[in-house]
Every structure is written in C-alpha cells, then in structure tokens.
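Hi U.,

Before I forget, here's the chain from the pilot set. I'm dumping it here mostly so it's searchable later in email.
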Amino acid sequence: MILLRRLLGDVLRRQRQRQGRTLREVSSSARVSLGYLSEVERGQKEASSELLSAICDALDVRMSELMREVSDELALAELAQSAAVAEPVPASVRPMLGSVSVTGVPPERVTIKAPAEAVDVVAA
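Structure:
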C-alpha cells in the first residue's frame, strides 16, 4: 500500500538535506517540535496543511513545488505497484511514459527505480 505521508516525509527530508540544514534548524524556524518534524519526515505522522505551510516557509519552498514532487513520486509508486501485480499502466500515467527515453539498454529488460522499490518493465 502506498502511504502519502511517507512520500511527503521523504520529499520534505530531501528538501531539508539539499539545503544542508538540520532537523533542529528547520523545526525551530517552523515552530514545530523536533520530534514531531522527525515523525513527519519518517512518515509516521500526518501533517496538517498549517504544519506543511510552516515547514515549507521554513525551507523557503513553495507548497505547490513540494506537492508536485510528491505527486511525481506517487505516480512512480503507482506505476511500480501496477507492474508488480501485472496490471496495465493506468491511462493517467501513460502520457508521462512518453517522455521517458532509454538509450543503450537492451529492449528486453529495463529497470525503473521508484523511491521504495524497483520494478522490472519487460518489452512485450
């Protein structure tokens, strides 16, 4: 099962780490406890929209950018999950696949790495 809170936490952690900031710095700036921010980043707590706004402000990241990155990761996770159970790729994901380019790889087997797992895509 795909958990949105885990994907959101992963993206928040990456944003913070890209800036070279500590949990303590961001929690102080966002005025949220260090422990709670840690739980949000680990996907153990659901963040309210108010809390997300405060964290985004502390990271100087637009919430729309954060949500776009989460949405992209969710699409990959859904694709990985669909492939794992041999379901066809959902129509909403197909347009994204048109922008994927793979060169220098045998067409029989391509591996797409999603955030939490790898999926084998086999040419038909």
